[in-house]
Write a structure and sequence with these properties.
The protein is α+β, with helices and mostly antiparallel strands. 36% of the residues lie in helices and 20% in strands. It has helices spanning 11-21, 37-43, 74-78, 84-88, 93-101, 113-117, 121-137, and strands at residues 47-57, 63-70, 102-105, 141-145, 152-156. A hairpin with a 5-residue loop joins strand 1 (47-57) and strand 2.
Length: 165
Amino acid sequence: MRRRTVTSGNLEELLDAVSSAAPAAAPAPAAAQAPGPARQREEFRTEFTFELPRGYVDDEGTVHRTGSMRLATARDELRPQIDLRVKENPAYLSVVLLSQVITTLGTITDVHAGVVERMYATDVAFLQDFYRRINSEGHTHAAVTCPHCHSPFEVDLSGGRLGES
């Protein structure tokens, strides 16, 4: 058998060739079919919206509360390690990391370390937890317990007000 080298550039091409060369089988019932690659792609989220508890106040006095954060890459995690600000002060790591993965904050599209530095501590703590949730758990939901009736339920940390659906 001949070996083939597959790169990401021709992977779809190869999969199409293999599926067209395979003998036609009777189609499985719709309920038994597994979702195909196109279905999986639309379910995989790489960007998550959030709403800050307090909000970032820019130089003009505008409060920016909503934003979006993308999933971190290995490069995002490694780049701060060589940043001189992080080498001088390891606590600065989260500022650099958050500035790389926050894609928008209100009308601000250039979120840099200076923006994160000027955020309130509660907002930075919220973003650190949000980062951890989307990158390690893959979702923005948190299990909580009602302080009055002690019933457990789930909330979405990405924003929204109580009572909204």
